[in-house]
Amino acid sequence: MTIDFKKTALVIIDLQKGIVGLSPEGSAIVGRAAKLADVFRREGGFIANVHVDFLDGRDKLDPATDYMANSSTAPADWSDFVPELKVGKGDYVVTKRQWGAFFGTDLDLQLRRRGIDTIVLCGIATNIGVETTAREAFQYGYNQIFITDAMATFSKEEHEATCVYIFPKIGKVRTLEAFLAEIEA
């Protein structure tokens, strides 16, 4: 696999203080995502750090579902990116109000203005924010590379279902080690 970093973006989903701790693998995922970010910074690639946040709560989705959502008040730093990502001035920040990073944001516009046609995707939760973003990106026609050991969710079964049954149909599935080996070959 050849990666043209001028045409490839790293999209990191929801590695924020209020979400990372919800996954048993959160700190390992952050470490792998940080390695990816270091590679993209070194190569001059575009990085989009995506987090979910709400203005006043009235912009939060609240459809009727069978799932009982947590209704507790989030801490003030809930949407802050974890410090290990070193989100800085050169990184693009996307604030979403729902699961996917494209709907209701200017992510597609920012990628297209830079001539980006491929995204490398990682983050939490595999079957929620990452998968929804991946499905949206597929519909927009982006090439995608999923770094499956740089993403996690709330159970092994949920993670594997997305990685085995969805991602191969809409992009390329790699581990961090395999991705790094391929781009350095």
Structural description of this entry:
By secondary structure, the protein is an alpha/beta fold. Helix content is 37%, strand content 21%. It is built from six helices and six strands. A six-stranded parallel β-sheet has the order 3-2-1-4-5-6. Strand 4, helix 4 and strand 5 (143-152) form a beta-alpha-beta unit. Helix 4 (126-140) runs parallel beside helix 5. The radius of gyration is 16 Å and the shape is globular. The protein starts with 7 loop residues before the first strand and ends with a helix. The mean pLDDT is 93.
Topology (elements, then pairings):
Blueprint: E1 8-13, H1 17-20, H2 26-43, E2 46-52, E3 92-96, H3 107-113, E4 118-124, H4 126-140, E5 143-152, H5 156-170, E6 172-174, H6 176-184
Parallel strand pairs: 1-2, 1-4, 2-3, 4-5, 5-6
Helix pairs in contact: 4-5
Tell me the span between the first and last alpha carbons.
9 Å
Shape: globular
Task: Supply the number of helical segments.
Answer: 6
Sequence stretches where pLDDT stays below 50 over 5 or more residues: none
Give the ordered list of helices and strands.
Answer: EHHEEHEHEHEH
> Helical residue percent?
25-40%
Q: Give a quick account of the main beta sheet: strands, pairing sense, barrel closure.
A: 6 strands, parallel
Strand order of the largest sheet: 3-2-1-4-5-6
| Average pLDDT taken over every residue | 93
Number of strand elements:
6
Radius of gyration: 16 Å
- The amount of beta strand, in percent, is 15-25%
- Helix/strand-derived category reads alpha/beta
